[in-house]
Design a protein that fits this description.
- The structure holds 2 protein chains of 2 kinds.
- Chain A is of the alpha/beta class.
- Chain A folds into 2 domains: about 210 residues, Rossmann fold (3-Layer(aba) Sandwich); about 70 residues, no CATH class.
- In chain A, α2 crosses α3.
- Chain B has one domain: Rossmann fold (3-Layer(aba) Sandwich), CATH 3.40.50.
- Helix content of chain B is about 30%, strand content about 20%.
- Chain B contains 5 helices and 10 strands; from the N terminus they run αβαβαββαβββαβββ.
- Classes of the chains: A alpha/beta, B alpha/beta.
- Chains A and B meet through α2, β1, α4 and α5 of A and α1 of B.
C-alpha cells in the first residue's frame, strides 16, 4: 500500500470555492428563504476573494447552487462585459467547471447586479440578485433590531406614510430604484436596486429569484408564481420609468429599459440597458418573448395602471384592452 | 488552472440540494432524488446536516448515520430537522412538538422529512406561492397528518414538509402553501 492511494486526489480549492460547511449552511438558509417568501434569513456570509459590496452575497449563492452541468450568465446593470461581471463569471467558471454564456435564453443560473433581463426567464432558470441594502425599512427605521420587530408585526404603516409625504412634497415617489414591494401579501421586501421597470417582472414569474446581501448577511427569495405588489395608493398607482419617447440609437428598439448617454453637444442618446438583448436585436437573431412587448405593454394585463388620469378614468368607465385575460 | 475536484459525495449533495430547492419553490411537484426509500432520507441528511444542526428521528439506523455527520440528536421540540421513515399515528405526538419558529425568527421553524408509502392517502388541493393555479396532490399520508399540519402552520410560522416517495422522488409542502383536505 502506498501513501498516494490513501490520500485524497489533489485539490487546490474546494469545489465551487466555498467549503462544505459554508455551502451546507447557505443551502439550509436558502431552503428556508424559499419557504418564507420575502423574509430576510440571516446567514454566515463567508470571505470570498472579492471586496464586500461587489457582489459577495450573490456570488456565495451562485457558488452554493452551481454544478458542472450549469450554464452561468453574469450581468452588471444589464451588461455582461463590465469588469465586475466578467471577473465574477470567470471566477465561477474556474471554480466549478460550469459553462458560461451571455445569452439569457441559454443560461440556467443568472447572477445579476441591478437588472432583470428583458427576455422572459423560464421555469428552469434561477435568477440571483446582488443586494447592497436588504432592509426596506432602513429609510424609516434606523435600528435593524426594531425593523425586525416591524417585520414580525407586518407593521409597515411608516412606509406608506413616507410615500404619502413624498407625494405631498414632490408630487411623485422619490424612490427610483429599489422600490419596495410586498411579497405574498406579508413581507415588505427590497427588490435590490433594480429600476422600477423591473419590479413587475418578479410578480407571478416563471422563475425562482434569490436575493443575497453579503455585507449585511441576509438572503431572501421570491418563488415562482408569487404575488409581488409595489407599495402604492389606489388613486396614485405605481409607475415604471417613463421612457416612451426613447429609442435605442443603434437598433431603434423602443419600450425596453434604456440607458441615457450624454453627448458632447449637450444632447443625449439612448441605448438598450440589456446589452445581450441589444446584440441579438442588432444582429437580427431570434429573441425570446420579452416582459414588455413592442408597444410597451406588460405581459400581465392590468398589473400596471394606465399613466394619465384621463386614461385611468377611461379604464374605470369602459375597461381597457389591458384588462382582458391574456 | 487550479485543480477542482467534485467528489462523488459532494456531487450527490449538490444533486439532492438542487432537487430540494426546486421542490420547495414548486410545492407538490415531483423532483427526482438520486436514491430511494430510507437511503433518500439519509442522502437529504447528508446534504444538509452538520454540527450546526439538531435532528430528531425515531429510527435508530438513521440516528447513527446522522450522528456520524456531527449533527446533534435532540428531542422533537428542539430539532431543526425531523426525519420519519414511517408515517403513522405514532409520529403525531412528535410532530405536535416540532418547532414552528417565532415571529422574529420564523426561519427557526423545523423541516419535517417523511418517507411516504405508495398506499392511497388524503387528497389535497394546494395553492399559494410556487403554484400558478391550485393543484391536486395525492400523498401516501393520512388526513390526520395534514389536519395537524394545518393546525400548526400559520404563515410565516410553521414547519416545512418534505415528502419522499420510496422510488426516489421528493415533493415539498412549505409553510407558505395553503393545503385543503378534500
Amino acid at each position: 500500500m502506498r501513501l498516494a492511494e490513501l490520500a485524497h486526489p489533489r485539490q487546490d480549492y474546494a469545489y465551487a470555492f466555498l467549503d462544505a460547511f459554508a455551502k451546507r449552511e447557505l443551502r439550509r438558509r436558502l431552503l428556508k428563504a424559499v419557504a418564507i417568501p420575502g423574509y430576510q434569513v440571516p446567514y454566515a456570509s463567508r470571505e470570498v476573494p472579492l471586496a464586500r459590496g461587489w457582489g459577495t452575497g450573490g456570488l456565495q449563492v451562485t457558488l452554493a447552487l452551481v454544478g458542472p452541468e450549469d450554464v452561468v450568465k453574469v450581468i452588471d446593470q444589464g451588461d455582461d462585459q463590465s469588469v465586475n461581471a466578467a471577473n465574477l463569471r470567470r471566477f465561477i467558471a474556474r471554480m466549478s467547471g460550469a459553462r458560461t454564456t451571455t445569452d439569457t435564453a441559454l443560461a440556467t443560473l443568472i447572477q445579476s447586479r441591478h437588472r432583470i433581463p428583458e427576455e422572459m426567464l423560464g421555469p428552469v432558470q434561477i435568477l440571483v440578485l446582488q443586494v447592497p441594502y436588504p432592509e426596506p425599512l432602513a429609510r424609516v427605521e434606523p435600528s435593524f433590531a426594531r425593523a425586525r420587530e416591524l417585520h414580525a408585526d407586518a407593521e409597515y404603516g411608516q412606509v406608506w406614510l413616507g410615500l404619502y409625504e413624498d407625494l405631498v412634497r414632490y408630487r411623485t415617489p422619490t424612490q427610483g430604484a429599489d422600490y419596495p414591494v410586498l411579497v405574498h401579501g406579508r413581507y415588505l421586501m427590497a427588490p435590490s436596486p433594480i429600476p422600477r421597470w423591473d419590479n413587475p417582472k418578479l410578480h407571478q414569474a416563471q422563475h425562482l429569484t434569490l436575493l443575497s446581501a453579503g455585507r449585511e448577511k441576509r438572503v431572501y427569495a421570491v418563488p415562482p408564481f408569487t404575488e409581488v405588489r409595489p407599495v402604492e395608493f389606489s388613486d396614485v398607482p405605481f409607475e415604471v420609468e417613463d421612457q416612451r419617447g426613447w429609442a435605442d440609437w443603434q437598433t431603434g428598439v423602443r419600450h425596453k429599459f434604456m440607458t441615457e448617454l450624454p453627448q458632447a453637444d449637450g444632447d443625449c442618446r439612448y441605448e438598450l440597458s440589456d446589452r445581450d438583448y441589444a446584440r441579438k436585436r442588432a444582429a437580427g437573431l431570434p429573441t425570446q418573448p420579452t416582459y414588455y412587448n413592442e408597444e410597451g405593454r406588460f405581459y400581465h394585463p392590468g398589473y400596471l395602471a394606465p399613466r394619465t388620469p384621463a386614461e385611468r378614468l377611461e379604464r374605470l368607465l369602459h375597461g381597457s384592452p389591458d384588462d382582458l385575460p391574456a | 488552472m487550479p485543480t477542482i475536484f467534485l467528489s462523488p459525495q459532494e456531487s450527490q449533495d449538490h444533486t439532492v440540494f438542487r432537487s430540494l430547492l426546486r421542490a420547495m419553490s414548486r410545492p407538490g411537484e415531483a423532483n427526482p432524488l438520486p436514491l430511494g426509500a430510507k437511503a433518500a432520507l439519509q442522502a437529504i441528511g447528508q446534504a444538509l446536516l452538520d454540527l450546526e444542526t439538531r435532528f430528531y428521528t425515531p429510527d435508530p439506523h438513521l440516528q447513527q448515520q446522522f450522528l456520524r455527520l456531527g449533527s446533534r440528536a435532540s428531542g422533537p421540540a428542539e430539532a431543526d430537522f425531523l426525519f420519519f421513515p414511517e408515517a403513522d399515528e405514532r409520529i403525531w405526538a412528535d410532530l405536535v412538538q416540532a418547532p414552528i419558529g417565532s415571529l422574529l425568527h420564523p426561519e427557526t421553524g423545523a423541516t419535517v422529512v417523511v418517507l411516504t408509502r405508495p398506499s392511497p392517502g388524503a387528497r389535497l388541493r394546494l395553492s399559494g406561492p410556487g403554484l400558478a393555479a391550485p393543484a391536486p396532490l395525492e400523498t401516501g399520508l393520512p388526513e390526520g397528518f395534514w389536519r395537524l399540519r394545518n393546525e400548526r402552520v400559520s404563515f410565516p410560522l410553521g414547519w416545512d414538509v418534505l415528502l419522499v416517495e420510496p422510488q426516489g422522488v421528493c415533493r415539498a409542502v412549505p409553510r407558505s402553501t395553503t393545503v385543503e383536505v378534500a
